[in-house]
Write a structure and sequence with these properties.
Layout (H helix, E strand, L loop, with lengths): L2 E2 L1 H8 L3 H9 L7 E2 L5 E4 H13 L4
Helix pairs in contact: 1-2
């Protein structure tokens, strides 16, 4: 399990950091843990699954 920061997820999904933080707040992307700055860390496999699902539903 590789963990990704908010910035890495935003870059991978092609969205802004604020969008990733909102997805986490709304429980659409679940953080596996928090880093030392209290920022969420996401499992890369979960992020890939979310991207695939979002594409099927019409995009991010």
């Amino acid at each position: 399990m590789a963990l990704m920061t908010v910035n890495e997820v935003a870059e991978f999904l092609g969205v802004q950091d604020l969008r990733v933080e909102r997805l986490e707040r709304e429980s659409l992307l679940l953080a596996k843990e928090k880093n030392q700055d209290s920022g969420p860390l996401f499992d890369s496999a979960d992020v890939e699954k979310y991207k695939e699902l979002a594409a099927r539903l019409g995009g991010l």
